[in-house]
Structure formats: structure tokens, C-alpha cells
Amino acid sequence: MSLSLILIAIVLAALSGAVGLGLDRRSAWGQRLAVALMVPAAIAGLTGAGLALAHTSEPGPFATRSVAVPTTMPAGIGSWQLLSNRPMLVGVDALSAFFLVPIFLIGGLGSIYGLGYWPQAGHVANGRKLRFFWGTVVAGMALLVVARHAFVFLLGWEVMALSAFFLVDTEDHLAEVRWASWLYLVSTHVGTLCLFAMFCLLRLASGSFELTSLTAGQAGPGLLTAIFVLGLVGFGLKAGIMPFHFWLPGAHASAPSHVSALMSGVLIKMGIYGLVRITGLMPPPPLAWGGLLLILGSVSGVLGVAYALGQHDLKKLLAYHSIENIGIIVMGLGLALVGRSLGRPDWVLLGLAGCLLHVWNHCLFKALLFLGAGSVVHATGTRQIDRLGGLAKAMPWTAGLFLVGAVAICGLPPLNGFISELFIYLGLWRTTGLAGEPSAASVAVAAPVLALIGALALACFVKVFGAVFLGSARSGDTQSAHEAPGSMVGPMIILAGCCGFIGLVPGMVAPVLQRAVGSWAGAAPTPGEALTGLVSLKWIGMMNVSLAGLAILGTVVLAKRTHLAQAPRVGTWDCGYARPTARMQYTASSFAQFVLGLFHWVLRPHGQAPVLRRLVPPPAYFETHVDDYVLDGQILPAARFVQRWMARFRGLQRGLTQHYVLYILATVIALLIWTLPIHQILARLLAR
Amino acid sequence: MASIVNSLLVVVLGLNLFALGSSRLNAVIRIVALQGALLGFLPLLIHQPIGLAAVVAAVAAIVLKGIVIPIMLTSALQRAQIKREVEPLIGLLPSMILGALVTGFAMMFAAYLPVAREHSDLLLVPASLATVLVGFILLTTRFKAISQVIGYLVLENGIFIFGMLLVDAMPLTVEMGVLLDLFVGIFVVCIIVNHINQAFASMDTRRLVELKE
Description:
The complex is a heterodimer. Chain A is mainly alpha-helical. Chain A contains 26 helices and four strands. Chain A has helices at 2-19, 29-55, 94-117, 127-146, 150-168, 175-206, 221-239, 248-254, 257-281, 287-309, 314-342, 345-380, 391-394, 396-409, 416-430, 438-441, 446-468, 486-504, 506-520, 531-534, 537-565, 588-598, 600-603, 629-646, 657-675, 678-687; strands at residues 77-80, 90-92, 606-608, 623-625. The termini of chain A are far apart. Residues 57-85 of chain A have low confidence and may be disordered. Chain B has one domain. Helix content of chain B is 73%, strand content 0%. The A-B interface holds A 653-658, 661-662, 665, 676, 680-681, 684-685 and B 89, 108-109, 112-113, 136, 139-141, 143, 148, 205-206, 208-213.
């Protein structure tokens, strides 16, 4: 039942944009039809995923490692086979269903958001293209999540990756957009190459292309580690784990905002899904895997947020925050893997629950933030933070919803980001309680790293919210700012509501998480303890509710008092000047300057500062940039070197077909000589 | 039966040398058409007993290579209104001698190949190798776009002869697919010939160097 619903949803989603291709370019009906197909697809998909999550059987009692390990994957509910002798192609278990929820949620909401943000009338040239690939990217992602066979998985993966390329490339008349999309295409192909290799090795180990779990006896540690490393690179390139993140900021910034929301909220999570799925198929891993993931996660988290602080582009800043949040998610997965290696089910439970819940949470609040950023771009036409300001007055809904997203992403109570980070914190603290395991205790170092990430994220969002929504307008771009239409605000309200729901009633998501974790750890010791037994979610929920109540009460009281007192309206941040101008405001760059200084050793900000020499200095300007170390410092120089080196072979390109045919002839003759027993033939010829 | 097949193959080898030696494009087109049509009879001779698949393959090959493609090439030649001479890189006589040498080499080489017993008294392998190599000579030493197509056709004929070794193993769809590919390829090239002629006022493929990056 649930699988059929999901398959119907996949077909509907894939068709949603195709229907409008035949219609007139100026007609608005193509877009309405696309939304009219995508929304039922989303509802069907969410219903299917919900049924699968509700019906999956509870994980059994705690199984120790001595218990015989089942050789097949937990079948979940309903596995769909074309014919009885064919391999199982698709199926749904709790983990698949868990990842299907964000795909269909953002797929549907983003489609509605597009009605206001990317109307066909204003985007005659590329509106149809965008909606076609929007449908296929949603279908591709859903397909890869339900895949139970390597070919189906790779099919979904490539449909997703290529559709995303065309989505990033929507505004292909801009050189910057083309550059970002080509960079994305190259990196995604490198990733897919690694996945091809990984699935081949997996087949070598398991004997089939079906995604079945491996036992320790089936493959040696070398083969398993090779599979893991290939998967880490292939999936890491998609997820944007540092140092594989280089494509991400440009692609997220260049795409239309709802596409950025989909990519950042959902698409990069497919990399996480792949990692979770593949590690779930493995026998208990060596300790080093979890350790490696913890280190990569910490590095991505800290450097992601540090780079975010250095950005001047609103969407690029949010993109770097995706890298940070992927870091947190990977830390959770790393903790779960460490727990599996050491046989600690409570670490597995807390780490993976934190990882998975953060996947949902990041999808919710990052999509909310990108949609909010989209409203800002829609209203003002610029993404430069230092050109915006004072938008809260013109766009109160957008500002309020952006604030909700910002509080959530910083991991502050009472919203959802707090809950998932709390799981990971609790898991990390538990590692200190294990006596006589120095390697495990060192895992606890990740806890302060997580705290550092949270603090830096808070600083970054104070910068963004203060510079964009508070203060007064810095440039003419914001003069004509207006509130976004209902089709754009509506999806944001739903997302903010979900953020609040998970934060205020975390007890409701606990059983879902429990099932998803149970289907991951299928071959591993299944945690017998319930999530609710490890974390008193009821009390946390009540605390969050009271905190939210206090906050709302305080706001209301404050607003009333301000209203009653009839305080005079003055410019924000005018520093006591009698006649301030908007340009004297504290800028986002200056706000971030202090933290950028702390991370000077890695960010290496460079720019131009004016030197005041004369008594009356001439006009001067000040600018700073933060280049991406991996992309601008390593990959591009390496690419230039390769290009120079390959230029030597340019001579082979003569432009004459006759020469090319000669090359083929030479190759054929070389192959003949190589394959034939030429020595014997020569010997017989000479002997005659 | 083997003697008929062998004499047919010898005729094909002779036609190779004719194709290398004639100076007029129309004549070369006709020679290659004859070669293709003769080769079309091969499946009928080798398939015993003659099945429907062999008949279909033979008829399709004869019609396509003997009638359709030559007509397309001739009309492309007329539309392009070029000098009807081949303009080879090396002279006609030297290329004939080269073709003869290559044929001899193929005979010698094939004698030492491990071939299945039922094929050992047929000339299939040497004829195939020789025709492929002659196709390569035509491709590399002629500059006009039309003569390139002819070289490609000869090359394909060589591959067709080699395919006769696998005639029992290869399903009809594969042969039909190959013929379709050939037809589409020639069709496209005939159009391109026209365009090259218009753009460069010549059919000399050496002018295409200007398109090099």
C-alpha cells in the first residue's frame, strides 16, 4: 500500500513539469498544472511515507552480537518484485520512509512557492525548464531512496544529479551561473564515478547488486574499508562534507531560491542517506571509520560556519551554513558508528537519532531560510547583505519567519534544532563514562566542538538578521521592498510551524526516530532501550513550551509598553549622531570582523583597505573577500596545471579526418599485435 | 558451395583494386555498389538451409548497398557540381600497388590464424581483412568528402564479410541494425557534403581544418 502510493507519487512528480512543456510559453496554465500535479504527488508521497513509518514493526528486544546475523536486509513492509524470480528492485523500510518525508514536503511546498517567486509570465525563457527538472529531481530522489538494487539506486541518483544541474543552470544567460553549474556537474560526475566503483566492490563482497547486508565473513576489512572510503567520497561530494564542499556555495547561490531550498534542504541529504544506508549494510565497522566521520564532521561544522561569517552574499552564507549542518549530521553518524564498533547501543541510538532528526530539522529550517532569502531577493533584487537593511518594516512576515528559521538553525530552544543537537550532545557525553577506553573518551572532545559551532552560528545569524532586517535601508535597492505574496509566505509558515512542532512536542517524533534507527542497525546490536528512556523528551517539550510562552508573553508586554509610551522613532545604530545617514550603520562585514580575525589562519581574508596619508584624504574604498581554500586554493590551481600539461597533446588534433582515421588504424594494428600470438606467427613465417 | 563463395570473394577483392585505381568518382561509386550487392548474396550461399532471416538480410543488403546508397551518393555528387575526379593523396597506381600488397599480407596473415574448421577452406578471413585495409587506404588517402564515404562503405563491406563467420550466432536484428546505421550514416553525410560545398565552395575535407579549435 505505502509503496504503491510512493510509486504513484514518483510518477506524478516526474510528469508534473512535462505536461506544461507543450503549452504556450506565455500561458500561466503550465505552471498551475505543474503545481496541481506536484501537490497531489507530495500528498501521496507523504501519506505513503507516513504509513510506512507507522506500520514498521517495533525493533525487537536487545540482540547481542553473538546472535546469528540475518543475511538479508530488513524487508520492511511491502517489497515490490516485478516477477518472483527477478531481483527485488524497490522497497520501503523506515529509513527510506524517513528520507522520503523531506523530499515530498519540500518538493510540494517549493512548487507552490514558485507560483509567486518564479511566475511563468516573468520568466518566459526558463520557467518551463525549471518546472520540468523540478519534477524529475523530486522523482529521482524518491526513486533512489526506495531503491533496493544498485542499478535502480544509480538511475535515481543520476536523474537527480542531472536534473539538479539544469536547475542550477536555470538562468544560463549569466556567466556566473554557468560557471557554478559546470563546477557542480564536474563534481557530481566524480562522485558518481566513485559510486560505480563502490557498488562494483559491494557486488564483489555480497555476490549481487541488490542492497543486502554483508556479514563479517563475506569480505575482508580491506575490501570493506575500500567500499567505505569510496562511499565517503562519492556521497560526501553530494552532501558537501568538507573538503568535498567546493561546488556547494556557488551552486546554491546561483540557483533560484526555491531550488536552493530543495538542494540544500533535501538534495545534499541524499549523500547522507547513501552513507547511512551503506554503513547500515556493513558488519560492525572498525573504530577508525566512526573516528574519521567525527573528525570530518567537526571540521565541516566549524569551518562551514566560519566561512559563512565571511560571506557578503546572503545565499552563499546560507550555503556555507548547510556545510556546517552537514558537519553536525556527520558527527552524529560518526558517533553511531563508534557506538557500533564498541558495542554501545545507547551511543548508536543517540548518535543516529540526532543525525536523522537533524536531517529533518535542517531540511525544515534551511528551506525556510532560503525561501525567506528568496523573498528578500524577490523584493529587492540583490543578495548583497551590505546593500540591504531595515526590511523588517516593509516585510514583517518574511522577517518574522526568517527569525524563526534563524533561531532554529542556531540550535536554540524552544525550536527543533535544539532537540537534534541535544541528542548528539547527550551521546557524546555518554562516551566519557566508559572507563579504560581512552579512544572512546577522546570522542567526547567533539562536544565542545559542537558548542563552538552553535555559538558561531548564533553570531552569524545575529549578523544576518541585524544587517538585513533591522536598522534602516542602506541603499536604493530596498526602497521598493514589499511583502511577498501569499503563495510565498504560505509555504514558509508551514515550514516554521513544523520547526515549532518538533521543538515543542519532541515526544511525537521519538517513535518515528526509533523505527528509523532500528532499520539502520538491523545487522547490529539493536538498541533495546527506547529513545524516550535515554532522553526525557516529555520534560524537554514542556520546558520548550513554557519558554516559547514566556517569549511570546515578553514580546507582547514589550510591544504594549512601547506602544503606550509612544517612544520617538529614531534611526537604529546611529551612535548618538545628530544627523546620521544610513551608511554610518554598523555593517555586516564589520560585525563579523572579530570572528574572522580569530579564524584568520584558515579563512585568509584579503582585500583592499584605504591608507589615510594626507590631511584631507582622497575618496577611498574598503573591501574584503574570503576565498574558499579548497576551491580557489587547491582545485583550481591543480586544474590549471592539468590543463597546461594536457596542452602538449593539442598537436594530435590536426583537424583532418584522414589523420583521425590513421589514429584508429594505428590503434587497431596495435591491438592486433597485442592480442595475437605474434611471436608464434613470426616464428612459423621465418621457419618456412 | 565453397568454390562459389570463394570465387565471389575473389571478385570482391578484384573490385577493391578497381576502386583504388579508378579516377572517376561515379565509377568508384558503381564499383562499390557492385561489391555491396555481390556481398549481399553471401548469406544465401553460407546459410544452409536458407531461412527467412537469411533471405531478409540478403534482400535488405542488396537493395540498400546496391541501389539506394549509390543513388543517394550520385545525386549528392550532382547537386554539389564538383569536379568528378578523386584527387588522391598518393597516385592511383601506387595506391593500387599498396592495395595489392595489403591483400597479399592479409592472405599470409590469415593463413596463420586459428579459424574454426568449417571456415578453413573459405577465403572469408583474408578477404575481410584485405577489404577492411583497403577501406582504410581509401579513407586516409582521399580528400573529397564523397570519397571518404566510399572508403567507409568499403570498410563496412569488410566487416560484413567477417560477420559471415558468425552468421549462425548473430540474430537478424543485429544485421538489420547495422544496415540501418549504415543508411543513416550515409544519409547524413550526403547532407553534410552539400553543406560543406556551400560553406567552403569545395568538397575538400582539408578545408575543414579551419574549424579546428
